[in-house]
Amino acid sequence: xxxxxxxxxxxxxxxxxxxxxxxxxxxxxxxxxxxxxxxxxxxxxxxxxxxxxxxxxxxxxxxxxxxxxxxxxxxxxxxxxxxxxxxxxxxxxxxxxxxxxxxxxxxxxxxxxxxxxxxxxxxxxxxxxxxxxxxxxxxxxxxxxxxxxxxxxxxxxxxxxxxxxxxxxxxxxxxxxxxxxxxxxxxxxxxxxxxxxxxxxxxxxxxxxxxxxxxxxxxxxxxxxxxxxxxxxxxxxxxxxxxxxxxxxxxxxxxxxxxxxxxxxxxxxxxxxxxxxxxxxxxxxxxxxxxxxxxxxxxxxxxxxxxxxxxxxxxxxxxxxxxxxxxxxxxxxxxxxxxxxxxxxxxxxxxxxxxxxxxxxxxxxxxxxxxxxxxxxxxxxxxxxxxxxxxxxxxxxxxxxxxxxxxxxxxxxxxxxxxxxxxxxxxxxxxx
Length: 432
Description:
CATH topology of the largest domain: DNA Cyclobutane Dipyrimidine Photolyase, subunit A, domain 3
Order of helices and strands: EHEHHEHEHEHHHHHHHHHHHHHH
Low-confidence stretches: none
GO molecular function: deoxyribodipyrimidine photo-lyase activity; DNA binding; FAD binding
Oligomer: single chain
CATH superfamily of the largest domain: DNA Cyclobutane Dipyrimidine Photolyase, subunit A, domain 3
Protein name: Deoxyribodipyrimidine photo-lyase
Largest sheet: 5 strands, parallel
Mean pLDDT: 95
Structural class: alpha/beta
Keywords: Chromophore, FAD, Flavoprotein, Lyase
CATH class of the largest domain: Mainly Alpha
Strand order of the largest sheet: 3-2-1-4-5
Distance between the termini: 72 Å
Strand content: 5-15%
Number of helices: 19
Shape: globular
Cofactor: FAD; (6R)-5,10-methylene-5,6,7,8-tetrahydrofolate
Binding site for FAD: 215, 255, 258-265
């Protein structure tokens, strides 16, 4: 019986790039050859009802690009279509594994999964080593003087910037000679994992100076489409957050602040995992939501009679993207005008958004609903008509997504009475 080859493993998850990848770089410096793997987790994929899910197509393509690149170095990515522990059971039969390297993930389900894998590996005397990669600062690196987490963005961002000054951003190198040489198996096609190809653009994420330099000036105008569209790349790690932050530091503080918001919501989720299912502020659990299913359906389909709301929902349904300013308007409309539970909207966005990120989606929905960790009181209610006058006065965005007939749709509610009703319902809930 031949002796099993001793190797280390690198487990790709939401860090789908070969350059500036912290955990991968550390694995390649470890002294043993590295087998890169990816697990198409059936526990996640089986729950996706839409088999033309653009997100699956996106990360499948990203992995295939990496696989092709590694073939040039006589290696490749080994894939599994199963639960993570099952994949590692097979790997431990085939190889003598010293260490499994990966990058940290901070979502509650991911933490549970990683603990399960670590327990299995530990029983086989294999270490699971994880590294900080999807954020600049994690867990307890940006906290108050008493060690407690920040729950308000502005002081958090101020401290974040202070810590950054004394903590130089490191860019990680990739030593391709460290990969395990082997004849790479044929990479699975999308149909092999039960999904279909989509029309998602297959472009390498790039930092566009023309967009980022004027980001603060034009980002709020949906008709201009002057945003980076890097949300999906950050979500799946096809671009390095370190590269983004370095670029933002040189070119635009407004965009840097958006990247800090991303980390703020990640640390909120990490320290307060209850927010996945409950309001950050407990008293908001008392809100008497109307939860009218017919009105929710109209909102989902972009048929509320409020053009800016409807255009946003049509854009989301058609493309998997929605302009950030419009996201705030549609979320406020659902929770305040229609008094529908923020969790309904959050779940709909989770299903549709290409750049869906649990922490940001949850944080922003709670912000819109007034029940999150935002310092502002609950009586901020966006007026869709005023938002249109301010940010889409020529209706360039609205006309892109709505027809003349759509613009004749009767409003599902009247703004003034809906606002009054929302303030009344919220007021009663908060006062108990």
